[in-house]
Amino acid sequence: MATRLSTGKARNASSAAHKGRGRKAPSVDTNPLSYDRTDPFTALNVLRTLLASLPSRIGGCQFRLSAEEHRLSMHLLTIVEPFVGLEPSRRTLERQPTEILDAIVFHLDSKRDLLALALSCRRLHTIIFPRHYDYRDVRCKVSSLSVWNHLIVHRALARNVRRLEILDERSTEALSVPSDILVSETDLESTDDELAMHTKQERYLVSALSRMSALHSFVWSCNHSPISIDNIWPILLRCQTLKQVGINDNLIFTPVALAGPDSGRKRQLIMPALKMISLQSTKHAYGASKNPDMSRISSMLTNCPILESLDIGYTPRRNPGFFNPVMDDFLLCGRWPHLRSLSLSNLWCSPHAGFDATATFLFAHSQLETLHLDISFGAGAPGGAAPRRPFMLPPNSLPRLRELRASKEIANAVLECPCDAPGGRPLETIKGVRLSGSTWDQVFFANLRIFGASLKRLELAGWNEMDDIKRLVECVPQLAWLDIGKRAGSGVTNAVLQAHTSKPAPLITTNFVEWAALLANMSNLATFHGARFFYEVASTSTAAVPLSISDRSRVRKNDEVASMLAWKCPKLRRLDHWEEGSGKVIVLLRDGDKHLDRRYMSEFPLSIAPQDDGSGVVPAPTEAPEPAPITDNEVGEYREQDRFLPIANVSRIMKSAVPGTAKISREAKECVQECVSEFISFITSEAAEKCQLEKRKTIGGEDILYAMVTLGFENYAETLKIHLAKLRQVGISIPVSSFVPPSSIDVLANSTKLLETTSVPETEGTSQLRSHKTCGHRTVTSTRPGAHTLAAILSSFDARLVKLEKSILPLYTSTQQLTRRARNIESALMKIDEIASYQEGIAAEEALILRGRFYSPQPGQLEEYMEVLQRMNATIAFGNLDGSVRDTARIIETGAKKLIQLYTKQVAEASSGSPINGPDFEPMPFPSATLDALRPLVEFLRTLPLPPTHPSHPAAPAIQAALKEAQKGYGDMRGSWLRKCLEIYGKRVAERAGTIDGVSAGREFGTFLENILNVAEEEYGLLAVLVPLPSAANIASTYNTLITPLVSLFSSTLSSLSTQVKRSLHKYTLLALSLFSCLTSHQTQWDEVMCRPGNRNENELKEGLQGIRATCQRSFPEFLADIKIAASSNRGELSTGVMDVTQTTVEYLERLPEIREAVIAVLQTLGDGNWKMGEGAQVGKSGRSTETDNQRILEHFVYDVISMILGTLQTMSRSNRRPAFGSIFLLNNVSYLLSHLLLRPKSPEIPALLSKPAQDMLQSNFRTAKAAYFDSNFSPLLQTLADDKDKSKSATKEKFTRFFDLFDEVTERHQLARVLHEDDEGRNTVSEEAVKLVVPSLQRFIQRNLGKDFSKNPKKYIKMSADEVESLIKMFYLETNSAVLPPAEQATNNLLIQAGWSR
């Protein structure tokens, strides 16, 4: 405190006050410009802070605001107020603060969109004009300092510039600057130093450009100024929104200065949005270099990583000493992975590195679709080096190329380059190829014939001979667009002709018949350029001034040409106009073209291939000079009846073909007369042309037959050929006509037409031109003197006619003006009546909707109902928001909701009923009748007013809400119906999984999953047709709603199968693997059908796949553990047959090939060897190896399975208390494994699972088991017969007794236990080996002891002979060896079986 208090009490109070203010109040910035008007939350928080600080103030300042704080609080209230306190109905767009509206308008780039938004209401109009609309596109010069200064001062306005074009100082183009900027300002532009002025202009331009933070397009055409683009480019690099750049300056082709030592340390800026760039030189010499360089362009393009379109063009200089830029380094180093369009013009490559650099560059840019390549490869080394090698591309170059403009050599390289893309290279357009008649043309034609099947458009730069065009047509007859360019030598001929005449030389192609026959080979040809067939006329439409006689002659000739071309080429539409370089084309219209004006000329833009002279004009090829048009003095005359056959003859022939009582009208006779005469003239004209070509003067019968065949009347020609032969046999001579030279024929034909047209004054509506429609009508015989006489008569008549026309013309012009005014008045009155009746009709329709039959629309009345709503919508679109308009909007809302209810009802009917319950799933498509009924309804619902399209429409929000609800209902109903159709098959899959084998059950689930995906994909296709809100977001939301029941059905079915597998994994191991295989194969389709269309992040199939994968990983160790546990679970006496564990193992291995990929995938995930975790193996990184071969890891697992089952069988055999029976058990089981897995498998794929060690292990164990079997069953027999020291009779008797007792035990043992029951071949082998082992020893023992008389009765001890023993041993291995047992032995066997032994 400033004042110090002396009393202690005051001092205490002061200290207390300081303690109370120990926490300083937050400071508030009182500058109103510091707060953004678009951020109401910050304004509200600052206002609360300012008010909360009032109670803590001391003295008289408490609860008071200073002047600055008061001003700030009022400003904050104006920011917060628009966002609070308004009813929802008043919170419209136009009531938002100006700053928010300005921020919204800022995001509209197109001036058309800005204009549409500005016309919606006055508030937006005041914001858009001129703040945004006038600033979107700015076109001015560097010297426009007032523009740059205005943008520097008003930074917010500079942000609104989207396109900036800087013109040349000498340009005469109109400037485009905002209306509130003065074009010139004396204070800024006045200076005495011109160099300082240029520096000032550059400084202002750079400063203004740096403030254009939202610039999208920049064009630089400032050629005559010291300001360099090098000073502008760094500023453009900072503009992150720039998408398109065009630079037209010679300085970009000048060499760049060497970079300093510290230049590489600077961080390189990139332009993340720039996709199109055009770099061109100009025709002016200012700034041009004699040795242009590409280094500056390369350094500029390194800042454009996502470039999609690149256009570099250099204008060649005609002065000596100038060269074109070298492209070698640019092609070697330049790479843009997203490049789609490339144009390189007038550039040069070295002869050594140019080929490889160009080929490598094109191979690296596989995304190119448009390629314009005008590169010249330098000549060979001086001194006559070897010829240049042909240009070649690496295989699979340019796989997406669609348009190519290049030389013939490069076009051949592209066509010959192999492409492995599906469907081949989609090349459709080739431009710039010149046919010169050389051997390279033959190569080009051969490539077109082989690789040009996809070509649709071909634009040549020139051609030499007509044969070149014929060969071209034979190679690519499928062309739809053909431009042959200019013919070689046509420019010289044209110049010579112009030197001798005052008018331009005629370049009309006279042999149009030959051209028409050639073009007829291309059935799809729609456009043909390069040859002009039509003569120039003053006007092609009837006007106040009539056509002259020469123009009429040209019109008739043009009609003749058009008729011929239209007849020969049924699809031909566009041809060259007689005005060269005017941009006009001739359009042929046929009778079906009712929507076009009935004229054959139109101003369509003509696409012309670039020429060598740079003019861009393709002169037409020059043929033989066309004769001059028919003049007035050459006009002849003949009567109209001379053109037709006598009508009496026609009538007589017609009467002979009808009954005698029938009558024929005069009109019918005249019609047939004209048709027959036209037909005869048509045939005769073709025959006359043939005679003219053969230089003959008489038309014969063969000429008539030739004409009929040529014109397509083959059927008539065959009959007439027979008739002609018969007439010649009789000896009748048939003179057809005398041939008249074509010039006189044309004169007579044209004179007749002119006489017909000059019988009345030539005014609009009275002209009666009766011209021939074909090339015929040359059947009149006349002579040249008569034609000249008639021409002289007509010339005088034409002079008088012209005088008459000049006197009538003013009167006719005045009459036409009065007629137009009368028509305008009549049209205005009709429009007034129409508007009045329209308003009356609207009132009647409103009453009709509220009270009449349309209140509940029916499907048959939809069209009329929708027309009523559409007309009522039109009244709201142009009305004010008064009470009547709101009432109309409520009526429209009611009608729209009724239509939406009808839409929901029809969808519900199509999604109800009883699904098909057959053995296989049969999809139930959307009913075609309902679909046809819904299409027009949905199309109309899409035209209803919505807030985005009709922001001022009162009913738009309610209609949008109703449409969203209906669309959501569509998804619910269709999804429930599809689940109902598929649910029974899901239950069937889950129920059958426990009754069929696991692999088949997994396949059934795969079929079920595929049905779900197919149904979902089909429904997604219907969404684009049947939903009323077709935006991408709405379709995605509806699709998510639709597939939710399907996803739930899939999850529940998979969950039940997973539960079943987990409950008994040893039983359903194959089912788990089959499910894993099914889910893996459908994972990609699930992503494309279920996730991407609806933008879903959830992936139920992936989650289920993870659970099944974990189960499958657990199944392999548990399977091995189950095999190992089988040895301990069967202690004691065992059956000698094949064990269940053996059969289960064989069945498991037999089914592995069917699910091989799934097994390998799970084993790879588990790791090689990690399935032996039950034996103490540890799971670690050492077990996993991504490089392990798939076949190898599968063989390792199968080896471990076989090793485990063999070990288990050996353990079980050893645990048997009777080794002899244990050996039979082991032999039977090992033989079963060997037979089913290796020797006689069910499938040839099963042995492929066994590695060489596994096969050796099986065979070795089988041999060991067989040896154990012989050792335990037959070795004791051989031991009794072995020689020993005791050779007494009693010892011999004991040996025989012991042998046959043991043999009886072996016999009883084999009667109880079958050996190799299912292996016939194995039994025979064991039988033979047993006989060879026992019988020879017994024979030798008997023979040795029979001579010693060891007993008086040897048969008492020798119970069976060796042959009987052999027979009995063989009976051990017969399939029915137990059917002949004695009753006592059978009883013994029964007791043994009851004791635990079983067969």
Write the SSE topology:
Layout lengths: L7 H13 L19 H13 L14 H14 L17 H9 L4 H8 L3 H7 L8 E5 L3 H9 L1 H4 L4 E5 L18 H4 L4 H17 L6 E4 L12 H5 L6 E5 L27 E5 L14 H7 L7 E5 L14 H6 L7 E9 L4 H11 L5 E8 L25 E3 L2 H9 L12 E6 L4 H13 L5 E7 L2 H10 L5 E3 L2 E2 L2 H11 L11 H8 L7 E3 L19 H20 L5 E3 L8 E3 L13 E2 L44 H10 L9 H28 L4 E2 L1 H10 L3 H17 L6 E2 L3 H16 L26 H68 L10 H16 L5 H28 L17 H14 L14 H37 L5 H29 L5 H32 L5 H13 L1 H9 L8 H30 L10 H12 L4 H11 L23 H25 L4 H21 L6 H4 L2 H22 L1 H6 L8 H24 L7 H27 L15 H11 L10 H12 L5
Parallel strand pairs: 1-2, 2-3, 3-4, 4-5, 5-6, 6-7, 7-8, 8-9, 9-10, 10-11, 11-12, 11-13, 12-14
Antiparallel strand pairs: 15-16, 16-17, 18-19
Helix pairs in contact: 2-3, 5-6, 7-10, 15-16, 16-17, 19-20, 21-22, 22-23, 23-24, 25-26, 26-27, 27-28, 28-29, 28-30, 30-31, 30-32, 31-32, 31-33, 31-34, 32-35, 33-35, 35-37, 35-38, 36-38, 36-39, 37-38, 38-39, 38-41, 39-41, 44-45
Pfam families: CBFD_NFYB_HMF, Exo70_C
InterPro entries: CBFA_NFYB_domain, Cullin_repeat-like_dom_sf, Exo70_C, F-box_dom, Histone-fold, LRR_dom_sf, Transc_fact_NFYB/HAP3
Keywords: DNA-binding, Transcription, Transcription regulation, Transport
